DNA sequence: CGAGAAGTTCAAGAACAAATGAACAAAATG
DNA sequence: CATTTTGTTCATTTGTTCTTGAACTTCTCG
């Protein structure tokens, strides 16, 4: 019994929400994710749906109300979980459903998740690259060598600055630390 | 007379650089752009090539040494220019070439460009969306209304924080203001 | 157990973004 | 000017990423 309601809007017939508020949240987060490129837009939509709901939602709530495939819902939820953007809560009414989902609401934690999963892995790689660049710079002679070393040094400075800024960013954005 | 030299490396036969240092810079910036999704990776490669060069390069230097089409080079350079990431310098030896290109080296300015061109336009749109969400929240009754208003308020808080952080970010990252 | 529902995985296809190349415009050259 | 060279535009091709759907595994409950 699919309780999905066809959206009347001519614009985006993609989302079949029960109400306008959810609909708008779904679109909002969907676009935001697309814009920042955190991952597939559908994960934004899933988060948006959860964000608009007072109670945790079940797996089937999600793929039915968003009118996406079970596959997308499953993958999306796993990704969101790995980013720490949604949590699973034990089924209250233990009705076949294995778990229910609710959104992480702390901006600090949301950022942390993205940073840890997405940018930190990069850190190691870029360190290696810089080391190699420095080597290569050293091989040249005279003026060219000097030039290259200065470039590499600048890259290292950039890198250092970016790294230093991360904690500050999180400190500024996170609420006074929740729990 | 294409002076491009086939890269010997088995891995990425895409870039035909004169030397390893340029090659590495091209890859480095190419990947960085891809990672952050500022635009097509080719703009990173162009920037990387310029970054590795002591002298400004001409249009044909660029598409020949990167072995990309003139079209890509043209579009990429325009995009980079609109972001303030490359500058054009008047031809020194006035030899047919209309202009030469050099990279912007100030991290502050590079960030500014991306922020102004990419995130600021978003700001207006998201403000509109939030206004609409607030409206929708208000329509509901009782408990649901309260819940929705709290959600909208949180979104507004997030937005305010993100906005406030931008200048700080730039201040922290930019060198003491160059020129 | 065993039947049915919940959830996962992955190959195939749809949707999207980027690069190409050829036709075109603008400058320089002579 | 006529010709060659430099650079731009844009329709088409190429390549990547997302979603789907169906087969599969896991869980629930009689």
Describe the fold and architecture:
Two copies of one chain form a homodimer. The first copy, chain A, has 179 residues and is mainly alpha-helical. Chain A folds into two domains: 20-103, Arc Repressor Mutant, subunit A; 107-173. Chain A has helices at 20-36, 41-51, 59-66, 70-82, 107-139, 142-173; strands spanning 57-58, 86-89, 100-103. At the A-B interface, helix 1, helix 5 and helix 6 of A face helix 1, helix 5 and helix 6 of B. Chain A binds a DNA duplex (30 and 30 nucleotides) through residues 40-42, 58-60, 68-75, 78, 94, 96-98.
- Indicate the CATH class of the largest domain in chain A: Mainly Alpha
Order of helices and strands of chain A: HHEHHEEHH
Return the CATH architecture of the largest domain in chain A.
Answer: Orthogonal Bundle
Runs of chain A with pLDDT <50, length 5+? 1-17
In what range is the share of β-strand residues of chain A?
5-15%
The two chains with the largest interface, and their residue counts, are:
A-B, 39 and 38 residues
Give the terminus-to-terminus CA distance of chain A. 40 Å
Query: What's the helical proportion of residues of chain A?
Result: 55-70%
The CATH topology of the largest domain in chain A comes to Arc Repressor Mutant, subunit A
What oligomerization state is this entry in? homodimer
Number of domains of chain A: 2
The rough form of chain A would be described as: elongated
Quantity of strands of chain A, as a count: 3
Largest sheet, spatial ordering of strands of chain A: 1-3-2
| Mean pLDDT level of chain A | 87
Descriptive labels:
3-stranded antiparallel sheet, elongated, Arc Repressor Mutant, subunit A, homodimer, mainly alpha, DNA-binding, 179 residues, 3 strands
């Amino acid at each position: 019994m699919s309780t999905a309601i066809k959206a009347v809007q001519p614009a985006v017939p993609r989302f079949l929400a029960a109400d306008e508020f959810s609909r708008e949240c779904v679109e909002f987060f969907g676009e935001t994710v697309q814009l920042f490129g955190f991952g597939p837009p559908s994960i934004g939509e899933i988060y948006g749906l959860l964000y608009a709901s007072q109670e945790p939602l079940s797996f089937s709530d999600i793929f039915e109300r968003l009118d996406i495939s079970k596959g997308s819902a499953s993958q999306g939820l796993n990704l969101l979980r790995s980013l720490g953007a949604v949590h699973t809560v034990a089924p209250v009414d233990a009705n076949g459903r294995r778990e229910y989902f609710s959104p992480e609401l702390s901006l600090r934690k949301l950022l942390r998740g993205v940073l840890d999963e997405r940018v930190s892995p990069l850190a190691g790689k870029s360190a290696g690259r810089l080391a190699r660049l420095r080597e290569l710079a050293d091989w040249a002679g005279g003026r060219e060598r000097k030039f290259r070393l200065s470039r590499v040094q600048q890259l290292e400075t950039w890198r250092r600055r970016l790294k230093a800024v991360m904690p500050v960013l999180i400190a500024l954005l996170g609420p006074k630390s929740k729990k």
